[in-house]
Amino acid sequence: MTYRDQAKPEILRPVSNAFIFASVFVALLLNSLPWNGLWLMLHPDFVAVVMLYWCTHKPQRFGVGLSWVVGILADVSDASLFGQHALSYTVLAFGGVVLSRRIRMFDLREQTTQVFVILLLTYLVYALVHWQVNGQVAWTYLLGALTSTLLWIPTSRLFQSVRQTFVERE
Amino acid sequence: MDSTQTFHVFNRGPSPAARLVFFSVLSLLLMFVDARFRYLESTRSALSVLVSPVQRLATMPNVLWLQGKEFLVKQNSLLEDNKALQHQHGLDAVQLVQQQSLLLENQQLRNLLGLQQRSRVTGQFAEIVYAERDIFRRKVLINKGSSAHIQAGQVVMDERGIVGQITRVYPWLSEVTLITEKDHAVPVQVQRSGLRSIAFGAGDTSRLSLRYMPVSTDIQKGDLLVTSGIDGIYPPGIPVATVEKIERDAAYPFAQIVCLPVGGVDKHRHLLVLSDMPALPERPEAEPVVKKLKKNKAGVH
Lengths: 170, 301
Known about the structure:
The complex is a heterodimer. Chain A is mainly alpha-helical. In chain A, about 70% of the residues lie in helices and about 0% in strands. The two termini of chain A are about 25 Å apart. Chain B is of the alpha+beta class. Chain B has a domain at about 120-280: Rod shape-determining protein MreC, domain 1 (Thrombin, subunit H). Chain B has helices at about 15-35, 40-70, 75-115, 290-300; strands at about 120-130, 140, 155, 160-170, 175-180, 185-190, 195-200, 210-215, 225, 240-245, 255-260, 270-275. Chain B has a six-stranded antiparallel beta barrel. In chain B, strands 6-7-8-11-10-9 form a six-stranded antiparallel β-barrel. The longest helix of chain B is centred in the first third of the chain and has 39 residues, at about 75-115. The N and C termini of chain B lie far apart (about 70 Å). At the A-B interface, helix 1, helix 4, helix 5 and helix 7 of A face helix 1 and helix 2 of B.
């Protein structure tokens, strides 16, 4: 594994389950902030980005099943159709788990392009279900995939720095 | 990276592809059942107990900010508000007295004519806690639920006009579908001419449309549309929308009429949930033929 943008070799502590669930919880919280107007159109899907991080970095711990459960909770909090978020998050987790080794080979900037494809697919699945049920496609919804992708680098940096500070302290 | 954990060589459970297929089929099944039969409402309300603390927590900063702003409001503006409100109250009081006498007169006339009495509609106040974050739909959640005897179908309004209708009830929350939701229908009447029609939500942010009105119909720009009350759900005479634009194109059989809602459909935080709608007499049975057929069938079985 080569990390071209990092000078020191990456030593990361094993992640505790509590940290994973806390991060997903915070993401759910951020998602249910009262977004409005233009921000509603542009706001990233924090849950998707956080879950994609865990699916690519800890595929044995956070996989398709847990993503599905989180998707059901997102469906309830959004009052969307039961299974709509669950289906799109299942696709997301599958993409993350299958491509996890490949994605971790690249540095953060190169990861972004691959992450964009997975997120776009996730958004497309959601929009497809909506189109099937309500017979109406809102293309502006897909802008969220773009802003979510922009969130990938900050999220990864944040999680990795949190995991590293634990090591330095010891 | 995972070398610090236990090293699974063999037993990792089903492959990701198998899991993808399993959970996708499960999701599709759930969606089908939810969309067609609505069996899952109790599950949804049970899970909402888990999720609603998260929603409350997320709206907390906003609520605190609003309360803080209210607390730090200036004495001066309070006095001004008070003065304006008293002025308004004086004006309203005169109208109220007139309305009382009109109400009595109306009651007497209705008695004389043997018409059904119009019942008074009561309501309870609720606050918007959470706006729907799905940009496809026009819905809000309010802070009264089945614990406050809210039922699906009740009408929600603000001080100026109809805002929406309750479509789903949770223990402490309920979901209001706004009248601007796509294909949401409100039976209306043009106040000036008494013409009946149905206002449909246009699906975009803040417009309604009247469909299936002939080109020659008697509607003018600026007309007020009020609820007609013939559906037994919306009480009669409450403002819904004003006519904004009329396109009469002879090439089409129907005029295109665009209306703007009167109530602050996406502005206010406090709403009024109406209750105790008068019960309508039962609808006369329309198709005796079908009944006969059913009887025959019952006889065969």
